[in-house]
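Reopening: structure tokens for the zinc ion complex, inputs below.
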Amino acid sequence: MIVLGIETSCDETGLALYDTTSWENGAPAHQGILGQALHTQMAMHREYGGVVPELASRDHIRRVLPLLEETLKQAQCQLSAIHSVAYTQGPGLAGALLVGSTFAKSLAQGLRLPTIGIHHLEGHLLSPLLGESVPQFPFIALLVSGGHTQLMLVSGVGRYQLLGETLDDAAGEAFDKTAKLLGLDYPGGAAISALAEKGQSGRFELPKPMLHSKDLDFSFSGLKTAVLTQVKKFEASGGAADQSALASFHADLARSFVDSLVAVLVSKSEKALKQTGCKHLVLAGGVGANKQLRSALTISGKKNHFEVHYPPVELCTDNGVMIAFAGALRMLENNNGSTTSGAFDIKPR
Ligand code: KG4
Ligand code: ZN
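Re-run output (same inputs, fresh job):
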């Protein structure tokens, strides 16, 4: 069974073809990826300091058909080989989601194929199965993206229990807002991470919000405010006039920010593993590409005897492969039968 996946929830247009044969035969899941094409609109939104929904929708419209052609070519596959079409149903930007769902439904209607609407976070959640070290169910998923921060107990495909989530900003959002405060372009997650590598730990005492709370929830807005306070203090001291002092201030502050955020994410993950008795943790979502978080989780896993599984770095941020793959697993679970209704249904929230 070959499933076409279409992701258009935000500022990435991603298409992919996934063949379930290898999965069904017990081979590594990534062998089923036949082809994929991705376009990121990041450069287009950068000058506005964030994603402009109307521009995002228009660009998805422009890109989706050429990207399908590219995916088919890469997979050396004809349209007629496709068995079903999976698309991101939500959450995301309504207009952007409508482009993907309308395209998916129309294509499927023309080819008389079933469609399946996928929850964007389910795509992220299952993507670690496409990595080199495959987690066994049940596992804990730490989902850290631009819009979400959640800890989930994953007992199987479609069996997800929310254990905790952020009460305010998402981890990626905290990265992006901090990046803005330090004069870096949107989205600044990767740039903050690179800057932190050059900085010294411990120069700033930033909060580690909810580190000791008994629940598995998070809160990151206070951390961002603490960064802002430091920036204002530094500016008031006149330090910004000296270029090299400013550069090391930025690097050290980025380092402290990353240290605090990583400490909270690691500690709550440990707590979730302990509470559920799970021995496997997967990291998913855009912030899952973060080097410091990855290495801190690996160290904790060695110390606390749990195994950490990462999706391939290129599948951490939004892409079509995770949607094709989630759609494929859903179709298999439901004996190839499950489809979404005929309407152009999206669920932005
Ligand atoms: O999963 P994703 O592509 O989109 C959403 O579903 O939100 O995640 C995007 C987020 C952005 O906030 C971005 O700054 C962050 O992931 N991100 C990173 C890194 N790469 C992307 N954050 C920290 N370190 C990175 N290396
Ligand atoms: Zn995402």
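The longest helix spans residues 243-276. The chain has two domains: 2-126+316-333, 133-310. Marking as resolved unless the reporter disagrees.
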